[in-house]
Amino acid sequence: MLLAALAAALAVSAACDLERPSGAPGCTRAAVDALPMNAIQVVGTHNSYKMAIAPKEMEQLRKANAKAATELDYSHKPLTEQLTGGARQLELDFVYDPEGGRYTTPLFRKVVPDTTPYDLAPYARPGLKVIHVPDVDYRSVCPLFVDCLKEIRRWSKAHPDHVPILIIMNLKQDQLKVPGAVKLLPFDAKAMDAIDAEIRSVFPESELITPDKVQGRHATLREAVLAGGWPKLGAARGKFMFALDESPGVVAVYRGARKSLEGRVCFINSPNEDSPAAAYLTLNEPVELQKRIRDDVKAGYIVRTRADADTYEARRNDRARQAAAFASGAQYVSTDYMQPDVRFGPYETHLPGGGIARLNPVQAAR
Q1: How far apart are the first and last CA of the chain?
Q2: Residues 338, 341, 346, 347: is their CA dihedral positive or negative?
Q3: What is the model's pTM?
């Protein structure tokens, strides 16, 4: 299978847009669809749900913690606009709120009572709430996880030929050490089951790329990935892959006593490449981890890395990290700047050569 995947990759032009093949020699739909889905490279967004902190709240935050204010000074457009603009990886972070109402009165709205209006009514409903930093950076383009998923699926149904989209998730449960901050609920086994349930309430099985589907008849998920078990791009079009981007202790709760991830919707950020559940890895430092990322991509894993972080690159128009991210071969390269922030300058992140999806440079070089 690996030899077949390599042969397919070699038959496709490195300049080919894999989502919209031109039909030219080396860029036909048939040749592109014969590639494994891990042969792609696309751009996605970091904290895709995040709205800007309201000006008066940002002013208060800057007085209290200037460094945090600088790092949180970014925002994104609605999810539909990001997808239409070419994002093929999204990040949705959430808190656990099974009864509803826990996050309806953010602390910063009490500290700054004349802040910019924001509709908090959705937070009264039960379910996972999409929030970056509870009480402080709480404004989201889609407050309810289920509503975010419904919006994404609507876009997908209108664009069924899109390459597989990765949705990564952080689980917010670390308590904010500020007097009066809301108490966060832990993601225990019941909460982990709720994540799968909310995803399945929106996406039918036919639209999901799950660990079980990749593992197939192999003994472990890792074994399947190393044997080239990812679906072909043609079969993965219009589908979604979910992954928990979390620490070893958190993903261990999600995995439970399973040998790999049997029955689960989500892949996990594997603690290491030797885990039976290893298939997806978050490796966010493409300069320092360049060799590891390239080796993991060559082995068959799917990797997400970041082109920029904490507004640093945008403020300095520094593209070294971005270049390293693309060169690493990571399939999903995340950014906060699919468009420039006019306050900072011209920095933005797009695939080298343009297009929505290109042949992974590590695959292309083999």
Answers
A1: 15
A2: negative
A3: 0.95
